[in-house]
Amino acid sequence: MPELFDNKILCKKCSKQMEKAKLTKNGFLFRAMACPKCDHKLIHPVDKQEYDKFKNLKNKEFRVKMRLVGNSYAVSIPKEIVSFMNAQEKAMNDMVRLCFEDFGRVSLNFDELVGRR
Which of these, 44, 22, 46, 20, lies nearest to 33 by C-alpha position? Predict the structure, then answer.
């Protein structure tokens, strides 16, 4: 399938030809087109759609059980979250970073730097 941004795209504000660019927001890398004259930007629709899925998952609250497994406790991660992370090509078999952030708050980090610390 041909890539949408491989075509010539004109800026709707100033009619100048737009150039490929990359934007980052909340850890997401967006493919974009940017106008060199007026700095108007277009985000690739597929990337926008994936970001919207992320925002919907982020705003959703899951209630999960904590279970005793051997000498540790385990918490299940909902399939929705794991499926989204797999679609984003995050490594699910690598070690993750678990932090006790505050009273009543634990964080689990799957970022790229976990295995390199």
Answer: 20
